[in-house]
Structure formats: C-alpha cells, structure tokens
Amino acid sequence: MGLVAISVLIVSLLAAGLALLLVVAERFIANYGSCEIEINKDKKFTVEGGQPLLSMLVNEKIFIPSACGGRGTCGYCKVKVTEGGGLILPTETPFLTKQEQEEGIRLSCQIKIRNNLKIEIPQELLRVKEYQCICTRIEDLTYDMKRFRFELKNPPQIEYIPGQYMQLLCPPYKGSPEEVYRAYSIASDPAQKHIVDLIIRRVSNGICTTWCFEYLKEGDSVRMNGPYGDFRLSDSDAPMVFVAGGSGMAPFVSILHHMEHTGNSRKVKYFYGGNQVRDLCLDEEMKRFEKALAGFEYIPVVVEPAQGESWEGQRGLVTEAVQRAYSDLSGHEGYLCGSPGMIDAATKVLTAMGMNKERVYYDKFA
Ligand SMILES: Cc1cc2nc3c(=O)[nH]c(=O)nc-3n(C[C@H](O)[C@H](O)[C@H](O)COP(=O)(O)OP(=O)(O)OC[C@H]3O[C@@H](n4cnc5c(N)ncnc54)[C@H](O)[C@@H]3O)c2cc1C
Ligand code: FES
C-alpha cells in the first residue's frame, strides 16, 4: 500500500514538474516570431506569435463573440481556419460538432498563433463595432441586481435586434490584472438608439460583476462591443411563453419595448421566477407593459416568500406555474433566459407539454 502511494506521488511530482517545464519553456524560450493572419482572403495583418488568436483579433478591432472572456467554457468564439491552425485541442472538441471539425471550425481563444494563419469570419461579425460610452445611471433593482445605463458617445448610436447582447469590457482593477469581456443582454428600448441599458446580477467573486458593483461609477467611460446573438422573436404569430429568472429579465425588457412600438399583439405569458420576493424586479414596468400590450400577461412566481415578505402571487417553481397555466403547448413558442439549470428544466417541461423543441429559443447566461 505504502509502495503504491509513494509510486503515485513520484509520478504526480514528475508530471507536475514536466508541466511546469513546458509552461516556462513556452513563456521564456519559445519564439514564434512575426506571423501573418489573413482574414476572408482579404484583410492581412502581422502579429507577434505566441498569443491567442482571439486577443489578436480584438487588438485589430475584430470582435468575435466570447462570452466567457477566452476561458474556453462558452464555445462562442468560433472561426473557420483554412490554413495553419494545427491540431484541434481537447479543450475545443466538446464545443465542435463532427461536421464543424471537418470544416476547420475552431475556438479562436484556444488557438495560439505559432505560424501564419488563414481564417474566415462571417461578414456580420466584421460589422460588430466597439462603442465608447459613459455610464450615466446606476440603479438598484434588487439586493443583488443593478441596472446600468450607458450613453453611447462614439459611435453615438447602435442598431440591434431586441434580444441581442453586448460584450462589456471590464478593465484591469485591484485583484484582476487583465482586461476581460463579459456578455450582457441589452435591456433597453431599441428606439433609444443612443442608450444601452444592462441588468447585471452580482456573482460572488466574479471578475466583471465585482467591478460593476464596486468600482464602476456614474460618469465613468466604458467600452463595449456588439451586438451579438440569435435570441430574438420569430416572425410567426404563434402564442408565446416567456420564462426568466434573475437578470434573465434583461432581453425581455427590450423585446417588450419593441412589441409595443410595432403594435405586436401576439399572446404572451411571461413567467418570471425568484426564490423570494426580494429576487423580483421591475414589477411596475411589467404592469405598464400589460396595459400597453393587448396579448401580454406578466406572472411573477416566488418559490417561498421569506419570513415577513408579503406575497399574494403564485408560489413554487416557474416551471410549475407554466404547468398550472396550460394543459397543452403544441403550437406555442418558448423564449427562455437565465441560468443553464433553469433553461434545461424549463425546456424539459415545455417539450413534455407538447412544444416543438425547435421552437424553444433561449439564451443561457453561462
Ligand atoms: C449570451 C449571454 C448573455 C448574458 N447576459 C447577462 C445579463 O444580461 N445579465 C447578467 O447578469 N449576466 C449575463 N450573462 C452572464 C455574464 O456574461 C457573466 O457570466 C456573469 O456576469 C459573471 O461574470 P463575472 O466576470 O462577474 O464572473 P466570472 O469571473 O466569470 O466568474 C463566474 C463564476 O465562476 C467562478 N470562477 C471565476 N474564475 C474561475 C475559474 N478560473 N475557474 C473556476 N471558476 C471560476 C467565480 O467564482 C464565479 O462564481 C450573460 C451570459 C451570456 C453567455
Ligand atoms: S471565448 Fe468562450 S470558448 Fe472561447
């Protein structure tokens, strides 16, 4: 037993030593020199090798969706590499279908530039812009959610499809030495083209949310890029079920404004869930939408009100409230936004009630 433990220890130490050696060699010895990146057989630029492709593209003001900020956990930062990408890494394979792998699709945050590269990026991403903004208002929505208003300065206006998101640049600050980008759904009225509102929920020890809650002040300049994403209303007239929790409220605010401006009378029931009453927000705004939109009904749901909280509304999980509200969801569309766990649970319930899986649209705040 003792011998086995010692052998395991020795092997572990050897492996750790080898890994350390590789990191040191990569950092201080490897010199890849200048490498040329060619995009869409058109634009070319030269970079110093050794850096992730995603960062080099950002330096050139080419913005690829990168919701996890390059940690390799969102799988959003796909580009097609036609030459020079090397082998697909194990960190990429969970996010790439077999067909994508055959087509040369790669995660740009995982590719380290070691030689010349040829890549292809969809034209619509080349139209994504960076916006210089001023934070003009910070408003408490709940104990852990704030709404941040940003006025766009350069360029001064934005066009987006309600439901889309931006990537906010969190600058280096005490405790976080590097710039990081994080994805936030646009929560403003799309008719106000000079404004982007974001509803942000604080994540314990989160890099960007700590910065937003503790460092960002009204009057500060910030940078963001976008818009990104496919989450949006379909152009059918099918009745809809919206389901959200926490900051998953954000894209629905934008979508509801848009429905109001376009006189959209589609039937919608919006189930917004919180653990306690203190988790819910924007009640007044939702009641105003109920008056403005003929087909819209807002249904806040609380799992279990805390002691002393008064609550007349529905209780339980949002999914239970959906089950109480409908007997059959065939012919309906589902729009879900919030944590991956909530979205997976809601998708199961909606499809079990007859909703076509193809008609369940969601944005996971992963
Ligand atoms: C399309 C999309 C839209 C979104 N829209 C919104 C929105 O409108 N509002 C909103 O509030 N959020 C939204 N999000 C989530 C948002 O992008 C961030 O993920 C969230 O705000 C947390 O960011 P953070 O930098 O504060 O936390 P992070 O620093 O990313 O940390 C997140 C969690 O991971 C842990 N962690 C950090 N680093 C590591 C590590 N190396 N290894 C293991 N664990 C680690 C942290 O402790 C924390 O618990 C959206 C996400 C997506 C993908
Ligand atoms: S940026 Fe998230 S996986 Fe690459």
Write up this protein.
The protein is an alpha/beta fold. The chain folds into three domains: 34-125, Roll (Ubiquitin-like (UB roll)), CATH 3.10.20.30; 128-228, Beta Barrel (Elongation Factor Tu (Ef-tu), domain 3); 240-364, Nucleotide-binding domain of ferredoxin-NADP reductase (FNR) module (Rossmann fold, 3-Layer(aba) Sandwich), CATH 3.40.50.80. The protein is 27% helix and 29% strand. It has nine helices and 17 strands. The strands form three sheets. It has a six-stranded antiparallel β-sheet. Strands 15-14-13-12-16-17 form a six-stranded parallel β-sheet, sandwiched between helices. Strands 2-1-5-3-4 form a five-stranded mixed β-sheet. The model has no long low-confidence stretch (mean pLDDT 93). Flavin-adenine dinucleotide binds at residues 67, 74, 165, 182-185, 199-201, 203-209, 229, 247, 250, 363, 365-366. The site of flavin-adenine dinucleotide (FAD) has 23 residues, from β9, β10 and α5.
Strand order of the largest sheet: 9-8-11-6-7-10
Residue runs with pLDDT of under 50 for 5 or more positions: none
Name the shape in a single word.
globular
- What are the bound molecules? flavin-adenine dinucleotide, FE2/S2 (inorganic) cluster
End-to-end Cα distance? 43 Å
Say how many strands there are. 17
Q: How are helices and strands ordered from N to C?
A: HEEHEHEEHEEEEEHEEHEHEEHEHE
Q: Strand percentage, roughly?
A: 25-35%
| Percentage of residues assigned to helices | 25-40%
What's the level 1 CATH class of the largest domain? Alpha Beta
CATH topology of the largest domain: Rossmann fold
Oligomer: single chain
**Overall number of domains:** 3
SS summary, helix count: 9
Structural class: alpha/beta
* CATH-assigned homologous superfamily of the largest domain: Nucleotide-binding domain of ferredoxin-NADP reductase (FNR) module
- Name given to the CATH architecture of the largest domain: 3-Layer(aba) Sandwich
Radius of gyration: 23 Å
